[in-house]
Specification:
- With 153 residues, the chain is of the alpha+beta class.
- The chain has one domain: Immunoglobulin-like, CATH 2.60.40.
- Helices cover 18% and strands 34% of the residues.
- It has 2 helices and 8 strands, in the order H-E-E-E-E-E-E-E-E-H.
- The protein has an 8-stranded antiparallel β-sheet with strand order 7-6-3-4-5-2-1-8, with no helix packed on it.
- The protein is globular, with a radius of gyration of 25 Å.
């Protein structure tokens, strides 16, 4: 039924919003490096309540699901996670990082191969309202002039 699909899609969107907000609340940010020299993906995760164990990294191609990959990153130490990169993907990708329990997620996008570190952040961070800034140019200091009153006499 169509209404069931809309309901499920709404539930999925609400779940993603909660994941994004939870990542933002925990101040999570990940620095991701694809190393072709070592054939590894390394992730440095900063923030509060870093999970121990494993993280799930999903690489999704916007136009070709055959290029999609999922990697299980093992904890090396408190903030560093790593996985083997057997066949480095090439092209434009959306990147998602989340713990096994899927309580939060960090997102990014990039073109691979990539030599530079990719920063993954909470989607909630980019959706915050930004107050508009008014471009008001400072006025030069003007000294007040005394009022000239008409002389009626």
């Amino acid at each position: 039924m169509v209404s069931e699909n809309y309901y499920q899609e709404g539930q999925n969107i609400n779940q993603r919003i909660k994941q994004d907000q939870h990542a933002s609340d925990l101040l999570l940010q990940a620095n991701l490096l694809f190393s072709e020299q070592t054939n590894k993906i390394n992730v440095y995760l900063a923030g509060e309540k870093i999970p121990s164990g494993t993280l799930v990294l999903t690489i999704s191609a916007p136009n070709n699901q055959h290029l999609d990959r999922t990697y299980t990153l093992q904890s090396i130490n408190q903030n560093l996670f790593s996985a083997a990169l057997n066949e480095p993907p090439k092209g434009r990708f959306y990147i998602s990082l989340e713990p096994q329990n899927r309580q939060w997620r960090l997102l990014g996008s990039t073109t691979l191969p990539r030599q530079e570190t990719l920063v993954l952040t909470s989607q909630a961070n980019s959706q915050r309202l930004i107050e508009p800034q008014l471009d008001i140019e400072p006025q030069p200091d003007i000294e007040p002039q005394p009022a000239i009153l008409p002389n009626n006499g």
